From TrEMBL:
Protein name as annotated: Radical SAM domain protein
Organism, as annotated: Thermomonospora curvata (strain ATCC 19995 / DSM 43183 / JCM 3096 / KCTC 9072 / NBRC 15933 / NCIMB 10081 / Henssen B9)
Gene Ontology MF term list: 4 iron, 4 sulfur cluster binding; catalytic activity; cobalamin binding; metal ion binding
Segments of skewed composition (Gly residues): 456-466
InterPro entries: BchE-like (IPR051198), Cobalamin-bd (IPR006158), Elp3/MiaA/NifB-like_rSAM (IPR006638), Methyltransferase_Class_B (IPR034466), rSAM (IPR007197), rSAM_sf (IPR058240)
Cofactors demanded by this protein: [4Fe-4S] cluster
Keywords: Iron, Iron-sulfur, Metal-binding, Methyltransferase, S-adenosyl-L-methionine, Transferase
């Protein structure tokens, strides 16, 4: 069977001016995981439109497309094209789970929720000649996953080819998050066995890792065992966690000993009233400043996430947030406009109040206003969002943030990381188009290490540098 797996480009990743580096960071692990279930004699290819053009002149038997909200238009276009040629087209992902009836018009089969239990059932049904129109995930486990087909991924196209996922979902229930809709009907947070996760890490080449888990620290017992098992591997890694997890005694220390050097933290807002409104309970009454100081004291850089446009935000929120972030010495910041995704409690609340402006999914990208704000105009919200990015990443702001570090090495590290992320986007575009983005990985490793030299050999505890054998992380088809 000829199988083609496609990750269509997000709308915001197709700028005619340059290709932002963040869309060439990680390979499509979800599709590579599903490929692991195929038979050895199946001919399978994975195409990531963020880093390569899609050749639509072929005639596969089975086409699998992963759909996010701002790639939906492109995904449906490709699905319709291949269906017209007689291919069996499957659609899955966050957007499909949120709006299954919409997706079903463009597919022979749709998948709702995670694919670890539904995808094998579909393949058995397909080979028996009776594939269903829809599969809904109900069993949630990461036990017994086949190896991820990393051999189908061109590592040279990605800055972070060693991305990895060792859990699914998140234990929290924020109103604006897609997660609750995606995991409806079963457990919304579960992990791999620690030994399976360590085996996956042990096999990956090089030194750097990026955990793509929504909340790597979400199960403290699992995280503790994972970090203890990673100690001595010589890895440098990045991940996402919460303020609550950072402040938990002992857990951060174990992560740092295992190689943590940069953490994505969802601060979301500097207004406590917003946290209660969005049910961001894990941040309420937490000392953001203490969490940042704790990370910096342990040599961990901070990527702070902030959302603008919650109902207690007025037009002053942008300057206040940026000034606070710079003053705290946060190395990088990711800003978003509040976006009510279909299937979330926020969407239901906005729809009931008649505050949604339209359903043009291309604009549900956290960069455009798609609802009526409460305490400012839509124009003020959108303009303030762009101003926040400009102001935070000005050279003067980067140097001010760097000046909060107590050592010269710390200041240089801050400046290099922040500037490398945002100040050289046209240069990143040239590197991406030249298919040389992987060559920048040693620079990233050097910055993460704080200038310390890399250890010789691969990441294995045995130090022999073996292997690019597949991982055990799962998917979100």
């Amino acid at each position: 069977m000829r199988v083609k797996m496609i990750l269509p480009a997000l709308t915001e990743a197709t700028s005619p001016l340059f290709r932002p580096i963040k869309y060439a960071l990680f390979p499509p692990l979800g599709l590579a995981t599903l490929a692991g279930y195929l038979d050895p004699d199946d001919e399978v290819t994975i195409v990531d439109e963020h880093v390569q053009k899609i050749d639509t002149s072929d005639e596969p038997d089975l086409v699998v497309i992963q759909v996010y909200i701002t790639s939906a238009r492109r995904a449906y276009e490709l699905a319709d094209l291949y269906r017209a040629r007689g291919a069996h087209v499957c659609l899955g992902g966050l957007h499909v789970t949120s709006l299954p009836q919409e997706a079903a018009r463009h597919a022979d089969t749709i998948f709702c929720g995670p694919g670890e239990d539904t995808w094998p059932r579909f393949l058995a049904d397909l080979r028996a000649g009776r594939p269903a129109r829809r599969y809904d995930s109900t069993e949630r486990t990461l036990a017994g996953l086949p190896p991820v087909r990393r051999d189908l991924i061109d590592r040279s196209r990605y800055l972070v080819p060693n991305s990895i996922v060792v859990s699914r979902g998140c234990p929290h229930v924020c109103d604006f998050c897609y997660k609750e809709a995606f995991f409806a009907g079963g457990k919304s947070f579960y992990t791999q066995a620690v030994d399976a996760a360590l085996a996956e890490i042990d096999r990956l080449p090089g030194r750097h890792l990026y955990f793509l888990d929504d909340h790597l620290f979400g199960n403290a017992r699992f995280a503790t065992a994972l970090f203890e098992g990673m100690r001595g591997m010589g890895r440098l890694w990045q991940a996402a966690g919460t303020v609550q997890a950072v402040l938990r005694p002992g857990l951060l220390e174990k992560a740092v000993e295992a190689g943590l050097r940069s953490l994505f933290v969802g601060f979301e807002t500097v207004n406590a009233a917003n946290l209660a409104e969005q049910r961001k309970w894990q941040n309420i009454d937490r000392d953001y400043g203490a969490a940042i100081r704790r990370l910096h004291e342990h040599g961990v850089m901070v990527n702070g996430s902030f959302v603008f446009g919650m109902d207690h935000d007025d037009a002053s929120v942008f300057d206040r947030t940026v000034e606070w972030a710079i003053g705290q010495g946060i190395e990088t910041a990711t800003f978003h406009i509040l976006t009510p995704y279909p299937g979330t409690r926020l969407y239901e609340r906005m729809a009931k109040a008649g505050r949604l402006l339209h359903s043009d999914w291309d604009l549900y990208d956290t960069r455009h206003v798609v609802f009526e704000p409460s305490r400012m105009t839509a124009r003020q919200l959108e303009d303030g969002y762009w101003r926040a990015y400009r102001d935070f990443y000005r050279w003067g702001s980067i140097l001010r943030g760097a000046a909060t570090k107590p050592t010269v090495a710390g200041r240089l590290r801050h400046a290099a990381y922040a500037a490398g992320w945002k100040k050289f986007e046209p240069l990143w575009d040239l590197v991406i188009r030249a298919k040389q983005v992987g060559r920048a990985l040693p620079f990233l490793e050097t910055v993460l290490a704080g200038g310390l030299p890399s250890r010789p050999g691969g990441g294995n505890r045995s130090g022999d540098g073996r292997g690019v054998t597949p991982s055990l992380s799962g998917s979100r088809l």
